[in-house]
Amino acid sequence: MFFLRVRNLREMRANANSLIPLRFLYPTILSSFPQTLTLPFSSSSSSPTKTLLQPEQQQQDSPLDTTDIFRRCGCTDADISKLLLRQPSLLKANLKIVQSKLRILQSIGLEGSHLVKIITCRPRILASRLPQGLDHRLEFLQTLFGSRQMLLKAITRNPSLLNYGIEERIKPCIKLYQEIGVSGVDLRGLLISRPTIVLRSSLNKEKLEYIARTGLSNESKMYKYVVSLIAVSRLETIREKVSNFENFGFSVDEVMSLFSRSPNVLTLSVDKVQRNMTYVIGTMKLPARVVLDHPFFLYLNLETMLRPRFLLAMKIRAMGLQPQIMGPSLLRAMRMKEPRFLRAFINCHKVGVAKGLMEFYTEAKEVKRLAQDSKVAVRKGFPF
Predict the structure, then answer these.
(1) How far is Cα 276 from Cα 288, in angstroms, rounded to an integer?
(2) pLDDT at position 56, please?
(3) Structural contact between residues 357 and 315, judged by C-beta atoms closer than 8 angstroms
(4) Would the CA dihedral through 136, 139, 143, 146 be positive or negative?
(5) pLDDT over 50 (residue 227)
(6) How many CB atoms sit inside 10 A of residue 290's CB?
(7) pLDDT over 80 at 112, yes or no
(8) How far apart are alpha carbons 164 and 123 in whole angstroms?
(9) Pairwise CA distance, residues 154 & 117, whole Å
(10) How many CB atoms lie within 10 A of CB 256?
């Protein structure tokens, strides 16, 4: 029995010595094992293994670059491309600073689509310093907007609320609107729908006279819209647009009455108002005062809606078809959505007639404004 044990030991020693020349193959053999391979360890041997894995875990958690940070926040590749196109400096930004700012936005409650929207719409917020005392600022803004939900909605629409000075910007704006009778509830809606009012609102004696000539009381539903548009508009712009309407025979009081019923007329450019008014009066042969009763004529696109629909009305009249687009029907037809207009005045006819009318209508819509392709856009800054 003793001799058998000695013999077995000699054979094991010989086998071990035969493997010594293959030591250079150990790394290759080990690397061929699957990385997910796990071996059972006792509790005493698990702690060294965990210590060895910590650097790898930290390397996985740390972002590779700015784009990696944005992807982890939920931004798509298209969002990241748009963001970096508007703010290329973010590529060189300090990763820790970018992460800290994103954590602040997330701590407010901005996550998912809201956070992505803020980053893509206002990438400069990551390039600028967020002010000190953010907690106090958020408490003030939440009191102003009435609830956390409304605050998040306001910040999503205007992330610059996180940067505006409370004493220098926000409180003076609130005081200005409260002094002319805009209530707190209405002011909240204005701050959300028109974010520019914080920076651009100003009132003087002449602007207050324009507001008074609208004839609106501060209890009217349209009052807050008229006031906010006049407050953010430049005084010379208001004068220019009022004068433009006066050229068509309207008095100042009639123009301000028009603004009171349709405040967004004040946002239309002088050129658009001139072209639409000229077509309504000169080609359609309607009285200028029709615009006072039906302001939608000023909002219509001349090339794609107003002119093509009127030309189609003339075509239907010449062919003696029914229904005609004349009188009250003309006003109704101009306000219709495109599918309804096609059903009411083109597809209602026989197939052959409808096909001919559709071709005529399509060709009329494809006629472009003279020299439109070569027109150079001139940016004058804030549109009002």
Answers:
(1) 11
(2) 42
(3) yes
(4) positive
(5) yes
(6) 14
(7) no
(8) 16
(9) 12
(10) 23
DSSP for 85-99?
A: HH-GGGGGS-HHHHH
Mean pLDDT (the chain) is 79
Task: Give the containing element (helix H, strand E) for 284.
Answer: none
pLDDT recorded at residue 94: 79
CA–CA gap between residue 199 and residue 177 (Å, rounded): 13
Q: What residue type is 314 in one-letter code?
A: M
Question: How many CB atoms are closer than 10 A to CB 162?
Answer: 21
**Cis amide linkage into residue 323, ω under 30° from 0:** yes
The set of residues, in sequence order, having a beta carbon less than 8 Å from that of 254 and lying 6+ positions away, is: 245, 292
Q: How many CA atoms within 13 Å lie on the side-chain side of 120?
A: 17
Helix (H, G, I), strand (E, B) or coil at 40: coil
> How much of the chain exceeds pLDDT 70, in percent?
76
* The residue type at 17: N
* Pairs from 353-358 (Cβ < 8 Å, separation ≥ 24): 353/319, 353/321, 357/312, 357/315, 357/316
Average pLDDT over residues 187-208: 90
Q: How far apart are CA 262 and CA 226, in angstroms?
A: 9
* Confidence category of residue 260, pLDDT binned at 50, 70, 90: very high
Q: C-alpha angle with apex 50: 45 to 52, nearest 5 degrees?
A: 105
Can you list the pairs that 344-351 forms with residues at least 24 positions away whose Cβ atoms lie under 8 Å? 345/312, 345/316, 346/312, 348/323, 349/321
Cα distance between residue 204 and residue 236, in whole Å? 13
Question: Cα 107 to the chain's mean position, in Å?
Answer: 22
**CB-based contact 145:188 (threshold 8 Å):** yes
Answer positive or negative: Cα dihedral of 48, 52, 55, 61. Answer: negative
Helix or strand run (H / E) with residue 193: helix 184-193
Alpha-carbon dihedral sign for residues 283, 332, 258, 297: negative
Which two tokens mark 335?
A: 């306000």
What string of H, E and C letters represents the secondary structure of 324-338? CCCCHHHHHHHHCCH
* Residue owning tokens 């819509």: 365
Report the C-alpha gap between 46 and 44 in whole angstroms.
6
Q: C-alpha distances in angstroms, 217 versus 185, 201, 261, 266, 292?
A: 16, 20, 13, 19, 20
270 — phi, psi (to 5°)?
Answer: -60, -40
